[in-house]
Amino acid sequence: MVERGTAERGMVERGMVERGTADSGNDHRIVVGVDGSEPSKHALRWAVRQAELTGAWVDVINAWEVPPLAGVAPILEIGAESTALARAGEQTLAESVAEVAGGLPPAPIRTRVVHGPPAVALLQAAEGADLLVLGCRGHGGFIGALLGSVSQYCVQHADCPVVVTRGTHCTDR
After folding, report:
1. 123 in Cβ contact with 158 (< 8 Å)
2. Which of the residues 54, 62, 120, 123 has an alpha carbon 20 to 30 A from that of 154?
3. Are β-strands 11-17 and 109-115 bridged in parallel, bridged antiparallel, or unpaired?
4. What is the set of domains in the chain, with CATH numbers?
């Protein structure tokens, strides 16, 4: 089943891959941030397994924002760039979910492309969630580098528990 164009606080729901349904009254929700990187795919795998174990559904979020401009650009160019970034986010989610969940996922999955700074968008998406799952990004020997700025911000500010997954791609150097 695919749903299109449902606006929700600046978030646009772009699609849903189902086994069961994410909207069947099941309030147990796991939010996971996915940007197409290996750490984010590892987080998605973990979230899908956890959802299967707990009976939750997975809310997969890709956040994007227009990069800061050095000068003033014509509004049409900004609009075109925004559209391209949103489409790239949709493609990233589709490819990541297909790679991780394969054909039919073991838990209901909804994908959403969100406009805004990733940390803020993930925290908003996680309001009322049971869990927020993120991949590691850092490569250093201290906590800020191990988590990455988005993960670190979410760990410090989320209203729900946060899991930061650490796969082989997150080893210290």
Report:
1. yes
2. 54
3. antiparallel
4. 6-66+89-170 (3.40.50.620)
Q: Please give the Cα distance from 134 to 154 (Å, whole number).
A: 9
Bridge partners, 109 (sequence order): 17, 58
SS3 of residue 113 by DSSP: strand
In 3D space, the residue among 88, 87, 108, 91 whose CA is nearest the CA of residue 99 turns out to be 91
Report the share of the chain in percent with pLDDT over 70. 65
Give the pLDDT confidence of 139-154 residue by residue, as tens digits.
444 444 445 689 999 9
Are 157 and 127 in contact by the 8 Å Cβ rule? The answer is: no
Q: Judge whether 82 and 73 are in contact, CB under 8 Å.
A: no
The residue with tokens 């906590």 is 143
| Chain position carrying tokens 């978030």 | 11
Question: Which residue in this structure is represented by tokens 């606080």?
Answer: 9
